[in-house]
TrEMBL record:
Heme NO-binding domain span: 12-156
PANTHER family assigned: GUANYLATE CYCLASE SOLUBLE SUBUNIT BETA-2, SOLUBLE GUANYLATE CYCLASE GCY-32-RELATED
Name of the protein in its database record: Heme NO-binding domain-containing protein
Cited Pfam families: HNOB
TM spans (from-to): none
Domain of life: Eukaryota
GO molecular-function term, one example from the UniProt record: heme binding
Organism: Magallana gigas (Pacific oyster)
InterPro entries in the cross-refs: H-NOX_domain_sf, Heme_NO-bd, NO_sig/Golgi_transp_ligand-bd
Length: 167
């Protein structure tokens, strides 16, 4: 039996906003402007507004070309930046209260998605689950999303998140 997969065409602008901020902070405003011109991107992104998902994909495609980076490492850097960005802009307390260690952080990611769902009600959130036999120094995280191709962002976020919980 073939499984039907729902494809989301319009998504909230948080990813686009973070991609843009990452490129500007890491590589400079000039590089962002070149990337935006490559794909005719004129928007100023607002996290709570909806955008076609092809914009995110176009930003990633143009950025990897312009910055001469492979897609996977670029997305991992974006994931690391996303975690740092969220900490800087009001989510530090939530992250700290979420867990005492990285395993608890990963096990509680669905809680964060539920929290964000209040602000982004139409968004189909990804789901996260750790295997039952995961322990603090060995764990397997399962990531389920209707948006294919973004798992490297999750990997980058989780790698940068780990030291946060080492006291």
């Amino acid at each position: 039996m073939k499984r039907k997969v729902l494809r989301m065409k319009t998504l909230y602008g948080q990813l686009n906003e973070i991609l843009k901020k990452f490129i500007i902070e890491r590589f400079g405003e000039n590089r962002w402007e070149t990337i935006a011109k490559l794909k005719d991107i004129k928007e100023t992104f607002i996290a709570e507004d909806k955008y076609d998902d092809t914009i995110s994909k176009n930003i990633i495609e143009a950025a990897t070309k312009e910055l001469d980076l492979q897609r996977d490492p670029f997305l991992e850097m974006c994931g690391a930046f996303m975690f740092q960005y969220l900490r800087r802009y009001g989510y530090e307390e939530l992250i700290r209260n979420l867990a005492n260690n990285v395993l608890e952080f990963l096990q509680n990611l669905d809680f964060v998605q539920s929290y964000l769902k209040e602000d982004y009600q139409d968004f189909v959130m990804p789901h996260f689950r750790c295997d039952d036999d995961s322990v603090s120094d060995r764990m397997i995280l399962h990531y389920f999303s209707y948006r294919p191709g973004y798992q490297r962002i999750v990997m980058g976020r989780d790698v940068i998140a780990s030291p946060t919980f080492q006291y």
